[in-house]
Design brief:
The chain is α+β, with helices and mostly antiparallel strands and about 90 residues long. The protein has 4 helices and 2 strands; from the N terminus they run H-H-E-E-H-H.
Length: about 90
């Protein structure tokens, strides 16, 4: 998270934030959890849950424009961002 953007960041990435509201357009979205690092309080992880990896990929195709627009709009809230993996729940 970028310093000075705490409130906006939490509003965007929380379980009821703008990302979650976009993801909820898919019945395959199960929820999101925002986790704060104990050692580095400015570092957060989002754990997005979907019924399958394919469900997320289908969502990205169906809502590509909305996803990209939101990604650009919120880019200034973070210093960097990366996907660290995809993990099946089964």
């Amino acid at each position: 998270m970028r310093e000075g953007c705490e409130t906006a960041f939490l509003e965007a990435y929380a379980s009821d934030g703008i990302w979650a509201r976009l993801f909820r357009k898919s019945p395959e979205f199960l929820g999101v959890e925002l986790v704060q690092s104990v050692k580095r309080p400015m570092r957060y992880f989002t754990l997005d849950a979907w019924t399958s990896r394919r469900a997320f990929e289908d969502f990205r195709l169906a809502y590509c424009e909305s996803y990209e627009t939101l990604d650009v709009k919120l880019a200034g809230l973070t210093e960097w961002e990366r996907q660290i993996g995809a993990f099946p729940s089964e």
